[in-house]
Amino acid sequence: MKLELPGLLRERLPSGGFRYRVRVEGNKRQRIRLNVDLNHPEFMEHYRAARRGIQLTPESPAEDRAIRGSIDWLVIKHLADLEKRVKAEQASPLTLKKRTGLMAKFRAEYGEYSLDMPATKVVELRDSMMDTPAAADSMVEAIRSLYRWGCEAGLCDINPAIGVAKIDKGKGGATPWTADDLRKFREHHKAGTTPHLALTLFMFTACRIGDAIRLGRCHEFQRDGIRGLAWQPAKRGSAKVEIPMLPPLYRATRAGAVIGDTYLLNNKGKPFSSPDSLGQMFRRWCGEAGLKGRSSHGIRKAAGHLLAQEGCSQYQIMSIHGHTQAQTSEIYTKGVERWRMASDAMKRLEGMDW
Question: Cα separation of 113 and 92, whole Å?
Fold first, then answer.
């Protein structure tokens, strides 16, 4: 196989074999010998590095194989840091999985470019994914997070994704469960079953699925004679949650025949390995109960709406949901408070002589 690449030199050795050297771009006198041949799967990485004056070995780590100062280089360093934070339980494995997938597409298209990426290129990439608007917006958010980390680490100065607007109008996110949905699920999945426990856990803790797979008796505590649950949500920026353990949840956690490190156990009696595995199983349980299009996050939203309807303030909902920004919990209280204010206002018209 013969390649016609700028600066690539193929030189015959006395032994009859060949070696490859590459002229450094901008300095024809400097030549870098390649330590791999044309058939090596990383040949092009070695070639591109050599064009920039870097000699790689076949065992070079991914960071060294990437062109320093390139998008590829920044992504590799960012994902390596994210992996460390996942191991330290400071980031979610689900976030790492999603970010890795998005960054693979980003690197495939722009990896060799300088990390000084203009905002127009981010918009160009977003618009190229117009057929899948939610994925397009996820890509922009991933790039924004990448450069935010890069700026904090002192690797770059400008975040090109800041100000790039979303294109997905969305449908309001997960569908909140109704009282009828909750009743149908419980009628199909009786007390003592794992599906019933999962529903009860989501409803009476309003936890995210990434936390549900971790919660167990080790998170219980006693305070002033009241049993409670306390945990630090895995989602970055969330506040620690401490809530009373209401009787329905306590009964559900004690109804199972098998006791493990976590409340929720799979069919092998082991904790669920990931949020994805529990999410897939929960959707199956919903389907078995005749509830299509429902998810665990919809229960969290339902809990927020029910709390608001019972008169809880957005700050009380914040303490249960682990929110740190009032506007996040305001979405549950705004509609209810507007109705109450409207009702009070309309009562003033009741006695009007019309």
Answer: 29
Could you please report the per-residue DSSP string of 262-274? SS-B-TTSSB-SS
Q: How far is 179 from 353, CA to CA, in rounded Å? A: 40
User: How many Å apart are CA 70 and CA 74, to the nearest integer?
Assistant: 6
Lowest mean pLDDT among 180-194, 196-210, 237-251, 253-267: 237-251
Count of CB atoms within 10 A of residue 247's CB?
10
- Which of 132, 139, 172 lies closest to 293 in space, CA to CA? 172
Rounded to two decimals, what is the model's pTM? Answer: 0.53
Mean pLDDT on 271-275: 89
| Confidence class for position 311, pLDDT limits 50, 70, 90 | low
- Return the SS3 of 220: strand
The sign of the CA dihedral 74, 76, 80, 83 is positive
Q: What are the helix and strand counts (H, E) for the chain?
A: 14, 6
- The burial of 348, by beta-carbon neighbours within 10 Å (0-12 exposed, 13-18 middle, 19 or more buried), is given as exposed
Quick one: tokens of 42?
């990383």
List the one residue out of 290, 286, 305, 91 whose CA is nearest residue 198.
Answer: 286
Q: What is the pLDDT of residue 45?
A: 80
How far is it, in rounded angstroms, from Cα 118 to Cα 110?
A: 12
Helix-helix angle 275-288:93-110, to 10 degrees? 110
